[in-house]
Specification:
Rossmann fold; 5-stranded parallel β-sheet; 6 helices; 22% strand
Length: 195
């Protein structure tokens, strides 16, 4: 059955491995009959700085962020292609999340005292295409998979996207010969399966 899929390339550069992975996933998903919306972070113009403490005040969303939120609300499956930089997300991608994933739209803070906010984007699944220079075993051993927990639990699950599966592509800056092509085929296979 066709799915509505939103693919977000979270790399801030115009040309990157993440861009190619997102394109490969989207192309294969479209070929398999899925309805796909593809957005590249590089093309989005918005102020990354939230600026305020707490959620009593917030800036109106720029059109680019409004479109991202509309696409998240529209989709049944969310795909994020992102590099790991300094053990976390690129600043512009983190800024997108800081600005766009707000109460009343992504999560509900109207809960009893001491309770966790309720996710507002439930019923969606997710996939992260994560590129890194560090091998996965090193990330797990040295940092206990902190970024994987952040992506899966503190961001996606928090707003209701679950399960969020992670495909890890390591050695991204200096891949072995033929490795990028293999990764692009992997992304295409996932796209064809809407997985």
């Amino acid at each position: 059955m066709p799915k509505r899929i939103f693919v977000l390339n979270g790399h801030p550069a115009d040309n990157s491995l993440n861009h190619a992975l997102a394109d490969s996933y989207a192309k294969a998903a479209r070929a398999a009959g899925h309805d796909v919306r593809l957005t590249h972070l590089h093309d989005l113009s918005f102020d990354m700085d939230y600026e305020f403490a707490g959620y009593k005040k917030s800036k109106p969303l720029e059109p680019a962020l409004e479109t991202v939120m509309s696409d998240l609300e529209w989709c049944e499956h969310f795909v994020l292609a992102t590099p790991m930089w300094w053990g976390s997300l690129p600043a512009k991608l983190k800024g997108l999340f800081d600005r766009a994933l707000l109460p009343g739209r992504a999560f509900d803070t109207r809960v009893p005292p001491g309770s966790m906010p309720k996710p507002m984007l439930g019923g969606r699944t997710g996939r992260v295409l994560l590129t890194s220079d560090s091998p996965k075993w090193f990330l797990s051993l040295m940092y206990r998979g902190a970024m994987l927990h952040q992506l899966r639990g503190q961001i996606l699950k928090f707003i209701g996207i679950k399960p969020a599966k992670i495909s890890y592509f390591a050695g991204a800056s200096h891949p072995k010969p033929g490795q990028p092509e293999k990764w692009l085929r992997q992304a295409g296979t996932l796209g064809g399966q809407a997985a």
